[in-house]
Amino acid sequence: MAAELVRGQNHALSEHRVRITVSAGTPVLALASLGDERGAVTGPEGIAHPGAGDLPGVEAPGGSADRHRFAVDLDAVAAEVHRVGVLLSLPPGGPARFGAVAASHIAVTDMDGTGLAEYTLTGLEAETAVVALELYRRQGAWKVRAVGQGYAGGLADLFADQGLSAPAAAELAARVHAGVAAPVAPDPVPVAPDPVVPVSGSPYAGTPGPAPTPAPTPSPSSSGDSTISYSHPRRRPAATEPPEPAPRTAPAQEPGQPPRPVAGDAGGWSMEERLYNQVWGMFEDLARTVAAYRSAVEFADSRMDRELDEALSDPRHRLGGSGNAARDTARARREELVAQAQAVLDRDLAQLIAEAEVVEPALPAAYARWDNPVWHGGRSAELPEENPLALRLGDLYLPERPDLRVPMLMRLPLERGIWIDNGRTGSEAAMAMDTDRLRRAAMDMAVAHAVRLLAVHPADRFSVHVIDAAGAGAASLAPLVRAGVLAGPPAAGAAGVTQTLARLTKRVDLVQMALRAGAPEDLPPDVDTADQLVLVHDFPHGFDDRAVTQLRYLADEGPAVGVHLLMVADRDEASAYGPLLDPLWRSLMRLSPVPDNHLADPWVHHAWTFEPDLPPQGSQVLDQALDRVAEARRRARP
């Protein structure tokens, strides 16, 4: 089975003679490049393009088409070649940017057609050229890496980035384009636009999204709460995007009735991606239908107020029963409009509830609740071989239907840290809880997230560090300590805080230097190449000014090089540091250990209630998951 790669991920190649197939939604140019260890080409002769001959070991396609095939013999490339790149470019006269066309798909197979790896180029917007994929040599073995590096400046910028001088890059780009006839645009296919929510500023009229993002992903607001980003590749402009393949749906129950929901009926190259997109679609549909209902009620109220004002302003209605009749008529019209809106809302919510009932049981472990059977054997008995697309943090719901919960999924790899607020001033629900219970709930929630992260990744993909300066989180941390899955004992005291932060800061610096040098894998042998999760409890206890500065550095620079923060803290207790910590709080995604409607919706003005997903009381699911992680790590050790 072919490995489904995400951007930046690599996979070992078992064959040295391979075919690379590019399937695009529009005619594109497909080129190949041969580079050294740093990825630099020797010159224009190191790039195969339409109008030029093949390169040693690489048979490249020619012309502009929506499907291309490369034949690569890695044993035949020169000894100084360490990278074989697959480059895509939009031809002259074609679409203006990759963000306006369907995502291209690249498959690597052996010569018999057996799949080895595949990659879908998502996340492109203004770019017109892209390094899609590369085969690279590492310690005598060949691997494939999903690159997805786009260039808004087109081929000239791409060639310059690969080592050609600016004049040579511009000349080669012009020569490539000059040798290709402008493609003939296909007949337009009518696409029905998404329904538009009658709310000012609504994002649902087909706003294109960049790289897939959490579903939904909160982002910080100036008030310290979170707002929700709706950017997602599933919703595309009807005027410029080709339609997605028809989703798989079951036959309608009765004529005129909506089709029965089917798990995985969204677009995507794998069931996991289809379920991810379906969850995102459910969130958008819930936001849309509730926004429409609230807008209709607001219109009905304003219309009734206007009619009542007009009736009361007429002196003739102040005497006798005509005034009462006018008021009754205005209220009746209002009730009629509200009833119509309620009927539409009930219909849409019923369909969403039916969809949730079939989607929830089908979710993979990374997306599933802790009480889902997937966590109790079966599919979760073994750790996965590949990274998941996203991670479930909890559920979201609106007051119109609190029992309709939509999973809150955070896209992986983590681009932002998480702050679990254990302060009592964060919400009314927190204020009603005892301080000790609230702090324990916050730490239990953090541990559950850490366990889920470990259990849905391959055994060697994540290392977990814990900073618990006062030792107050020992009870919650006991499952992690007992299973032996931590990178080391929880750091205690000011000395432990200093040592852990210094070690992680050094790792960030080393990886950044390696990336800037173009040799991301040439790191000292004592550097842990796995992603790092830093669980910080009871911040800022045990932190001096230097430690606070290092923590801010990790929050800003860490995610790009695989170091991620999971903090449990009370912002009020950290106020002694003043504005120094404001950038830190703004960079983190705030979650609450108790249900809280702190997620602000900037477009349709919803206040989403977030409820954390915690293991059932008395359940052994965390211990069982950790046992599988520990066993997988023992088997993976040489």
Overall description:
By secondary structure, the chain is α+β, with helices and mostly antiparallel strands. The protein has helices at residues 155-161, 166-178, 271-313, 322-359, 428-431, 435-455, 474-483, 493-516, 545-557, 582-587, 621-636; strands at 3-5, 10-12, 17-35, 47-48, 58-59, 64-73, 83-89, 105-110, 115-120, 129-138, 141-151, 217-220, 226-229, 390-397, 406-411, 417-421, 462-468, 531-539, 563-569, 588-591, 596-600, 607-612. The protein is built from eleven helices and 22 strands. Strands 1, 2, 3, 4, 5, 6, 7, 8, 9, 10 and 11 form an eleven-stranded mixed beta sheet that branches. A hairpin with a 6-residue loop joins strand 21 and strand 22 (607-612). Helix 1 (155-161) packs across helix 2 (166-178), helix 3 packs antiparallel against helix 4 (322-359) and helix 6 packs parallel to helix 11. The longest helix has 43 residues, at 271-313. The chain is globular, with a radius of gyration of 28 Å.
Estimated radius of gyration: 28 Å
The best one-word shape is globular
Distance between the termini: 25 Å
**What structural class do you assign from the helix and strand content?**
alpha+beta
- Helicity range of the residues? 25-40%
- Parts with pLDDT < 50 across at least 5 consecutive residues: 181-224, 226-252
Main sheet: strands, sense, barrel: 11 strands, mixed
What's the number of extended β-strand segments? 22
How many helices does DSSP assign? 11
